[in-house]
Input
Amino acid sequence: MKPPAFEYVAAESVEEATARLAEYGDDARPIAGGQSLVPMMNFRLVSPAVLVDIRRIAPPDAIGEADGHVRIGALTRHRALETSPLIRDRFPVLAAAMTHVAHLAIRNRGTIGGSLCHADPAAELPAMAVLLDARIHVARRNGERIVEAGAFFEGALWTALEDGEIVTRIDFPLLPPGTGWGFREFARRHGDFALAGAAATVTGSAGRAAEVRIALFGVGETPVRAAAAEALLTGTGFEPDAVAAAIDALRNAVDPDDDLHASADYRRHLAGILAGRALGDAWARAGGGAA
Amino acid sequence: MSAGAPAGAAGTARPGIVGARVQRREDPRLLTGRGSYTDDRKAAGAVHVAFCRSDRAHARIAGIDAAQARQAPGVLGVFTAEDIAAVARPIRATSNMPDYRATEFAPLARGKVRHVGEPVAAVVAGDRYLAEDAAALVAVDYDPLPDITDPEEALADRVLLHEDAGTNLIAAREFARGDVDGAMTGAALVVEDRFRIRRKTPAAIENRCYLAEYDAGRQALTLHGSTQVPGLLRDALAEIFDLPGHRLRVVAPDVGGGFGAKASLYPEEVVVCALAMRLGRPVKWTGDRMEDLTATSQAFDEIVRAKLALDADGRMVGLEADVIGDIGAYSIYPWTASLEPVQVVSFLPGPYRIAAYRGRVRAVATSKTPTGPYRGVGRPVSTFVMERLVDMAARRLALDPAEIRARNLVRDEEFPYKAGSGIVWDRAGFQDCLRMALDRFGYAERRAEQAAARGDGRSVGIGIASYAELTGIGSRISAAPGMPINTGTERATIEIDSTGAVTAAFGIASHGQGLETTLAQIVAEELGVRVEDVDIVHGDSAAVAHSTGTYASRSIVLAGGAATLSARSLREQVVKAASHILEAAETDIEMRDGVVSVAGTDASITLRELARAFYTEMRRIPKEARESLDLSASATYDPFFGTTTAATHIAEVEIDPQTFGVAVRRYVVAEDCGRVVNPMIVDGQVHGGVAQGIGAALLEEVVHDDSGQILTGSFVDYVVPSAAEIPDIEAVHLDTESPSTLGGYRGMGEGGTIGAPAAVANAVADALSGLDIQINELPVTPERLFRLIRNTEGNEGEPRHGF
Output
């Protein structure tokens, strides 16, 4: 479990990083926190010839609010997101989700840009990006683009990033006032990747759910929004029948795989249970739609 | 941790250094990063090995092309089976057990590979990185052979793993006593099931690591290694390389856990020794976690069909079992492949009074990693099976699980009691442990709380497990069936040097047990010095003439016994010397806290002064007296049969009725481990053992696919419990002396792992008692619960919410 030899270059700026990545092409990988890449290199699952270290690119941990969004620098560590007063105030669901990411030592090093780009289907942050309609800022040599979270995740460990591109910033559009949230996942051990997970937001209005969002993770190639279930619940008062219909719809919509830790059937079952709990939490936090 | 005093302060408190909560003397070193493990050892000019390991479960080796690897940067050589065979005799774990077939275990695969992870070639390079690069270039041409992964299919011998054995059935044995058939037909109730416990790996925190150094001038070989058994290895390597013991030394420096997996001879140990001699350079191999999870011995892989017969009052009248042990590819040295499965049938009757027993065991070779000793050996499985049967019977008879155990546990007046498998239990607190565990747990109140919780729709379960084990086994019994080496004695040498310092040398090898503290307590108490006056030398084959090491819950009984004998003998010498120096009668000499004095006077000298007088001030003791005295004593202790250790565990679990997540909420252990040397260390051993047992019950499983590939090759997939999954564990001790051992000690290092799988399994079954399901397979994962529960609901769609 030692990686083969590789070259290491440290970039000081986005321009330098993208230039280096363009120069080395396929042979290069950017490295930030290294919490997923380095183990994969040690297992020799990936063997980049060049590592382009982007950690020195300033500002490393910017979290700020502007233009109706919370903007987060891609090099922000999970732990910074977990403990940020701004995140706790504006996106408590995000702060809560971060407590489930592995262990403290890993959260202290892992970056949110790295987690998005690694795109593990069971990871929390990609699911948060999908739930909260994040806009992912991507830089390449001589250019920049914005990818909606819903279009960013293309498969397991596979994203819309092209060779030579890096993520620089993630923007989360603010939620309307009166939005409740829920986050539930089930893992075999504290800190493990979830066998399945669900997050929800509900914006209440006069006893009704004006807007419902549900994101599921660990139950397919990518985190997904449960669009049919969202539609079934929008406008309801979360009556038991309405919730049950939404859970059925959501279970029918996911397509999990069997693996060592859980069968597809069990994951589908869990997705329904966890979504039901997350929706219940969100509805309660939204004051039962009272706002 | 209530005794916050440093070792010395607690150690000087009299009476009773033995029995005091002395803090572990090794911990300041180990906890501040100042330990010295094998991989920490730097040898000038050392080269590093990476193994090219089989990626096939079963294949013939048609050829090995190492040309490209030999040309790789930094490579000193690539070595295969023939290179090792040229200098090392083959390894064969023998046994005089009937129906055992010894098979060869080649350090590097010869002709065939028989499991994924088996070493095929050794690549030596300047560092591990280069060695791994080159190992990837070794091209092995395999002719695939059919895999042998299912142990029951393997019994049909359609494909043979070891052709020279002529069968995959490597060992078979049957124990029988009494009229089992009569008991079964005449019984009021017979409960039976097929039980499956899945393969585990011990997963010590330190991966295996070996460093061999050959001194060509002295023709002497030294192996530093992460091992529990330096003396045993020294003796084995002496045979393999045909060297006398004084030119072969095996040292276990600090070792980061073993749990039995470092108690056997490994191919990598032979390879580094052979290559150090061949290359004239120190040769090091540091295993990584993937190698640990594929090439360190595994355990607990059994299928057990068992039935228990009882009369109408719930008294056990007969027991029958058929055990199939999946032993993996090789019969590990020296224990043999029979160790684990034979222990399952030997210990299946447990601590109960059962007149009729028949147990049959078959050990079957499969194309998987070899199995070997793992904390508890056989008894975690036998206890799981027996304790499940007991609870199944209690339910059918509408008896409380505590009551049925009280009716059947061997009672105090019945000891010594000979169990159906021939094991003799000496007096131990079987009934007392049950009572103490129930008291500490608050059994009646907890049952009331459980009933209330059920009323609220919660699934709470309480599980009891009682067991007995043999520990501190002496020379009359072999630690493994029919094994031709002596594991029944240990030796100690205690010396007072010319500075008055006391050094006690042992062949045991502490690798987490705190033996540097507990053995020092025993020596200090017996000799009359303070704990901090005593240094413990261990883990070095050169320390004593013969030793095997630390395994099988033996060290405090055997090494403690040897320490007691030699300390007593040394004390006599000190008293004789002091009588000359202090000019007093021997009967008036006292020694306490390292000070020698004359009773009823203020005449006294320190041990340092006594040593100076004895060794340096030549006129203080007459020459004739000096020549008959020696401030050094050696003794060997043999407990002959060994002694019984017993316990009752009680676990309380709560199961999420929708996700099927199982949380262990409470855990109580009451045990009789004889005279307690250090309650803090005993508690720590119980906590660690229970944690491992909870892992076996709920989480841990080595998984192979149909082609014999290991799917659990990292800690992402081989799931061991972390602190978050382990509840507070309460341990209570029945502090009485064993009648069978010197000092009254009993071994207790394995018990936690023996009781916990059964207690947790019974608690899970109890929590789900409203459903028509059987908990007969471990680990009982959420996935397995999901399938069990769904199947009871007609195999259609979602399980109903709630039970």
Notes: Chain A touches chain B through 27 residues (CB under 8 Å).
